[in-house]
Structures are given as C-alpha cells and as structure tokens.
Amino acid sequence: MTTPSNLALVPFVSVEHMMKLVQNLGLEAVLAGIAARIEADFRRWPEFDKSPRVAAHSRDGVIELMPTSDGAHYGFKYVNGHPKNTRSGRQTVTAFGLLADVATGYPVLLSEMTILTALRTAAMSALAARYLARPDSRVMAVIGNGAQCEFQARAFQEICGITTVRLFDIDPRATAKAMRNLADNGLTLVACDSATAAVAGADIVTTCTADKQFATVLGDNMVGAGMHLNAIGGDCPGKTELAREILHRADIFVEFPPQTRIEGEIQQLDPDHPVTELWQVFSGQASGRRDARAITLFDSVGFAIEDFSALCYIRSVLEETGTYARLDMLADPDDPRDLYGMLARAAAPDAVAQP
Ligand code: NAD
C-alpha cells in the first residue's frame, strides 16, 4: 500500500471541527471575519467568474450547485432547500463545499457548510444593512425563527449595533427556542404573536421563513418609511415573502441580478425593473440609502462568491485553530501515470509499501 503524500491529503472541516472553530475564535470574530472577506471580495467583483447557480427542482425542494472562481482559486457549494424536512427531523438547508487551487486543480479545502452557510448568510445580511439601513437602527424584527434566525440576530448585533430583536414565527416553539438561544447575549428580546406586532417600531425587518410558495409574510401596510428589509427566505422560483406592492416602494439591492431575477422577490416584477448591485455599493460606484425616509430592500438569495469568501476565511484560520483533519481523497501513485499499478499492487495479497 502507498502512503498518501501531504500533497494528496485535503484539509477537511467537519461539523464538529466547525463548531470548535467558532468556539475557539468566538462567534463575533467569525461573523466579522466572514463579513470582511465578503466585502473585500465584492469590491473586486469583476475578477470573478459568475453564473446563476445550477438548480435541480423537485416537488418538495431544490438541490443547487454554486460555483465561482477568481482565477487563483475555484470554489463550489452543494446546498439543498427542503422546507418540509423539519417535520422529519432534518434541516431545511444543508450544505458542504470545496475550495481548489486553479493552477493544479487540486482541492485545498473540503468543508461542512450547513453552519457556515448560516454564518455567511448572516454576515452578508448585516454587511448589506451596514450600507443600507439607517445608521441609528437599533430594533430588528425577525420573522421566521428557524435555523437561520439566531445567526441573523447575532450578526446584526455585532455588525450593525442592533440592541432589540422582536421575534415571530407561526410555530411558537420556534420563537421559544430562539428566545432561549439568544438570552444572555445583551439583546432585549420580545416574543410577538403576529408578524404585524413584530414589525411595529422595527428599523430593520429580516424575513427568513421557509415555505415553497408565493407567501405574503410582509404586507404593504406593515412597511413604513425608513425601514430596511432583509428578505432572505424568498430564494427560489415560486418562493417569495413580500407583497408585490412593497417592491414598488423600495430601493432594491441585489447580489447577482441574473440569479436574483430568477429566485428573488423581484421575480414578481418586470424583468427590467431597476435594481442596484451590492458590489457597486460596497466599492463606492453606486449609492446605498438615499435618505432617512427611503425603504431599502436587500433581496437576498445567496450567491456563490459569499460561499467562496466564507471558505477562504475558514482556510485562513485553520492553522491557528487546528480544527481540521486531513482526508485521503486524491489518488496519489508514486508514478503519477501508474494509477492502475497502484490499484493492482494494493490488491496483491503480499502488497508492500513502495520504496
Ligand atoms: P427553517 O425551516 O429552519 O425555519 C423556517 C421557519 O419559518 C420555521 O420555524 C417556520 O415555522 C417559519 N415560518 C414558515 N412560514 C412562516 C410565516 N408565514 N410566518 C412566520 N414564520 C413562518 O429554515 P431556515 O434554515 O431558517 O431558512 C429560512 C429561509 O431562509 C429558507 O427559506 C431558506 O431557503 C432561506 N435561506 C436563504 C439564504 C440566503 O442566502 N438568502 C441562506 C440560507 C437560507
């Protein structure tokens, strides 16, 4: 048997490693680190290969591949979205992803991305809000208190200075879970019995519900002047959260228009309805909020560059945290052209290591 060389051993971050990594560094530092990396990567947007993600739709969900490259590294994420999964004890969204060296094509990181997706989605949401929400925003409503909810609340606390979170979910057990998880973090928490009650007095509203339909989680009369809306649950064809009328009153900001037109809230609008790309706001080429009375909307669907940034961040802290294993996932014959010989020698009863 041959022993794989270090070149062929791929750093692997399991779910357990990811949890330890966050514990070691602190959730605040990880959210801030991912946000900083996303911001830097969005500022060099033209350097990336970009395409809408490849989606395989089925009756109850979607499975998606999200690739991108900056010419030096290539990354992709596998992610699903199955709103009914929670009924059978599964997550709505699970993911894993990979980063590779473009020069050799060799993977340099394989990682769980279920936790990492929640971290990067929250970091991206809060980063967008830092440019779009009123700077004096202190109160956020979160509608939909499932897996993403607490990550969103903590990112907005850390990155935007939110001090109060008003929570609503159609399932009160989800709200109770979020209240428990968010206690003792310095946030004032308010459990609400309707979405209307939750948004009352909120400066920022995050919608993160999961339902495979055109839903109206936010009605037109619930959205007042000066609000920032962070709509993350409308991220698939036929799956939206906001009343169409809101979109006509809001200044709309998106990640990658060709993908958002298919998947975001703006699938409800004409294909030429004006939107602003966030990378242009982050790089100073477009303005964010016009004035204190404007309604701003981040029509979030989740874009491949955010996952690329998150993977690069995780890779950058691996040596410091030591939270990874090395996976024997690339065949590594001593003679690169003798793949067959490596297999044949391994099958021989008296197989011995090659010198
Ligand atoms: P989840 O299933 O864990 O939680 C969803 C919650 O929404 C549940 O508690 C459910 O009871 C609640 N809900 C459903 N309909 C509601 C309604 N009308 N009003 C109030 N609450 C309602 O899902 P999750 O992992 O938290 O994901 C939430 C959504 O965010 C999903 O739609 C997912 O696809 C999306 N998502 C988007 C991104 C992105 O980058 N934009 C990233 C991750 C997840």
Would you kindly provide a written description of the structure presented here, covering whatever features stand out?
This protein is an alpha/beta fold. The chain has two domains: 6-115 and 306-337, 2-Layer Sandwich (ornithine cyclodeaminase, domain 1), CATH 3.30.1780.10; 125-302, Rossmann fold, CATH 3.40.50. Helices cover 34% and strands 24% of the residues. It has eleven helices and 17 strands. α2 (27-43) packs across α3 (114-132), α2 packs across α10 (304-321) and α3 (114-132) crosses α4.
The coarse overall form would be: globular
**N→C terminal distance:** 10 Å
Largest sheet: 8 strands, parallel
Annotated CATH architecture of the largest domain: 3-Layer(aba) Sandwich
Q: What ligands can be seen in this structure?
A: nicotinamide-adenine-dinucleotide
CATH topology of the largest domain: Rossmann fold
CATH class of the largest domain: Alpha Beta
- For this structure, the quaternary state is single chain
Q: Helical stretch count?
A: 11
Rounded average pLDDT: 96
Uncertain runs with pLDDT below 50, 5 residues or more?
Answer: none
Please tell me how large the radius of gyration is: 22 Å
Q: Domains counted in the coordinates: how many?
A: 2
Strand arrangement in the largest pleated sheet: 9-8-7-10-12-16-14-15
Report the helical percentage: 25-40%
What is the CATH superfamily of the largest domain?
Answer: NAD(P)-binding Rossmann-like Domain
